[in-house]
Specification:
The complex is a heterodimer of chains A (about 425) and B (about 160). By secondary structure, chain A is an alpha/beta fold. Chain A contains 17 helices and 9 strands. In chain B, about 40% of the residues lie in helices and about 10% in strands. The radius of gyration of chain B is 18 Å and the shape is elongated. Classes of the chains: A alpha/beta (about 425), B alpha+beta (about 160).
Chain lengths: ~425, ~160
């Protein structure tokens, strides 16, 4: 497959506007400006593009809702918070292909009649901040940003806004509060951001990778795009592979590539001739899968059938030496730390779960602990204010579904991994 | 002194940033980043200054700042080591690095060395999982860390 999102990134100057222009960049802005905004939205609908931020919401549909709301101004926000542990797919776009993102945002803003855009960037990416600021400056100089873009009656102003280290600010309503200069805690939905978002105005939040797909959709048309990968949720997809593989990294492959192909063909298989034990397929919020299930396809439709989720396509590969109790303990520590504290089941639940997991890991587990873990996670599922709590409970339940015996062994003092 | 303790450059930078948002509260996170860059950490005085600059109450500034884990409310070491220990880094030995920092520098997670040279902050994934384990020292990025490599790197920070 021809690379779309990671095109030319081997070029050491790929972030420079001249290099980007040389490779045909920004051509699709002119093409888009010759279309009517509603026709672009129609192409995005036809393309079947689904949001790459984790939830997989159809992008064209979201845009349709936003444009149907008569309020102005409208805001376009790029979600570059990339906080899900195991995820590093947006970073190569931000650091090595920033003009592709900017081009995607200009086209999207034109289609959505948004004149102001923000890239909400995690503070853990200071290099990306410098690169984006520079790329935006270059785009202003060449009049791809600013007033009367390319001599047309179009204006778009773009600003990078840095977060400050809070995973929950990746959730779109928390992100909006954070952008407004507040504590980043999720808002009630409805109303949805497309109607009442930043500064109470219609706001479109899309992930970096989602927006980076837009120029290509304009280029080849929605119809042709919809034939890439799994037709039920098509397109090129970035998979980030980490853990015990020979060649970890970000791979651009057709949506729906199997886990087996990702791990063995692209990431070079398991290190040091070890056996594969388990895979967390979409970041730590998604349920783990045992080695026996890696023939499933990595897309928004197939993963739920396998009992997990595509999430942010952060494939964390674990070999036979890994202790699942330890992994689960570390994951729950993360959720306890990142719970924003707004609702009780998540704030208290993640803390209780972490303490029980810690005591099991340290060899102090008691009979009944597994039931207790199940009970608590049951009491969180579907009862928390935002999906963070569900993610925490779901990750634990996935672990118990496939690896309960390891937890039992720890509690019975029979585990081979000496308290960790 | 409404403008408090900020340098002229910082004030100019902030005014320019302020214009990019529909209201001044939105410039709060950028302002806190600038303040932390200038002073190393956010003292009550610094936050009072930020409040005045943006026409906010002190409670609004403190209440917001305290939510975010990358703002610091006490003096830090000269160099801040931000080491990731989340799953991908853990699988490839991040815990050994934490132990090494303890043994070699007497550095505990959340702590600062006695000579004020380093502070250690444990991070939740810094997006370098494919080249794990990884850390930021101040804003410099380092990955593929081993016990030898981390010592070699830290020796460059005096
Ligand atoms: C706890 C939590 C964290 C999230 N973190 C991110 C993130 O870091 N990046 C992202 O793009 N979306 C994240 N999302 C999803 C966003 O809420 C939102 O669905 C997404 O940005 C929409 O963009 P898309 O339609 O292009 O996927 C997160 C959601 C939740 C519940
Ligand atoms: S589920 Fe957790 S993160 Fe989400 S609102 Fe409740 S406390 Fe906050
Ligand atoms: S888990 Fe350490 S950088 Fe992602």
């Amino acid at each position: 497959m021809e690379r779309v999102l990671l095109k030319n990134i081997e070029n050491p100057n790929s972030a420079e506007i001249d290099e980007y222009l040389k490779a045909g960049g920004y051509r699709n802005v002119s093409k888009a400006f010759d279309m009517r905004p509603e026709d672009i939205i129609e192409e995005v609908k036809k393309s079947g593009l689904r949001g790459r931020g984790g939830a997989g919401f159809p992008t064209g549909m979201k845009w349709g809702f936003a444009i149907a709301d008569p309020k102005f101004p409208k805001y376009l926000i790029c979600n570059a918070d990339e906080g899900e542990p195991g995820t590093f797919k947006d970073r190569p776009i931000l650091e090595r292909n920033p003009h592709l993102l900017i081009e995607g945002m200009i086209i999207s803003a034109y289609a959505l009649k948004a004149e102001y855009g923000y890239i909400y960037l995690r503070a853990e990416y200071p290099k990306a901040k410098e690169i984006l600021d520079r790329a935006i400056r270059q785009a202003y100089e060449r009049n791809y940003l600013g007033e009367n873009i390319l001599g047309r009656d179009v204006r778009f102003h773009l600003t990078v806004h840095q977060g400050a280290g809070a995973y929950i600010c990746g959730e779109e309503t928390a992100l909006i509060d954070s952008l407004e200069g507040k504590r980043g805690q999720p808002r009630n939905k409805p109303p949805f951001p497309v109607n009442v978002g930043a500064w109470r105005m219609p706001t479109i939040v899309n992930n970096v990778e989602t927006l980076a797909n837009i120029p290509y959709i304009v280029e080849i048309g929605g119809e042709a795009y919809s034939k890439i990968g799994n037709p039920e949720c098509p397109g090129p997809k970035l998979y980030c592979v980490s853990g015990h593989v020979n060649r970890p990294g970000v791979y651009e492959l057709p949506m729906g590539t199997t886990l087996r192909e990702i791990i063995y063909t692209h990431a070079g298989g398991i290190r040091n001739d070890k056996e594969l034990k388990a895979v967390i397929p979409g970041g730590v919020s998604t349920p783990v899968l045992p080695a026996s299930m890696i023939d499933c396809r990595m897309d928004f439709v197939s993963m739920p059938k396998a009992g997990s989720m595509l999430g942010s396509a952060a494939v964390i590969v674990m070999d036979e030496t890994v202790c699942m109790v330890k992994v689960m303990h570390r994951i729950m520590k993360f959720f306890e730390h990142e719970s924003c504290g707004k609702c009780t089941p998540c704030r208290e639940g993640t803390g209780w779960l972490r303490r029980i997991l810690e005591s099991i890991e340290k060899g102090n587990g008691r009979p009944g602990d597994i039931e207790l873990l199940r009970d608590i996670s049951e009491d969180m599922m579907g009862k928390t204010f935002c999906p963070l709590g569900d993610g925490a409970a779901g990750a634990l339940r996935g672990m118990l579904k496939h690896f309960e015996y390891e937890f039992e062994e720890h509690i019975a003092g029979r585990s081979r991994c000496k308290g960790g | 002194m409404a403008r408090g303790m900020f340098s002229e450059t910082a004030i100019k930078e902030l005014e320019e940033i302020r214009r990019r948002y529909p209201d001044s509260r939105a410039a709060l996170l950028p302002a806190l980043h600038i303040a932390q860059r200038e002073f190393g950490w956010l003292s009550d005085d610094v936050m009072r200054s930020v409040a005045r600059l943006l026409n906010l109450t002190e409670a609004e500034v403190k209440g917001t700042a305290s939510f975010y884990s990358m703002f610091r409310f006490r003096p830090m070491g000269r160099h801040i080591i931000q080491l990731c220990t989340n799953v991908s880094c853990m699988l490839l030995g991040a815990e050994r690095l934490v132990d090494l920092l303890k043994d070699r520098y007497g550095l505990e997670p959340g702590g600062t060395t006695e000579d004020g040279r380093f502070s250690l902050v444990i991070m939740e994934c810094i997006g370098a999982c494919g080249t794990a384990p990884a850390m930021l020292v101040n804003s410099d990025f380092y990955d593929n860390l081993t016990e030898e490599r981390i010592v070699e790197i830290l020796e460059r920070y005096k």
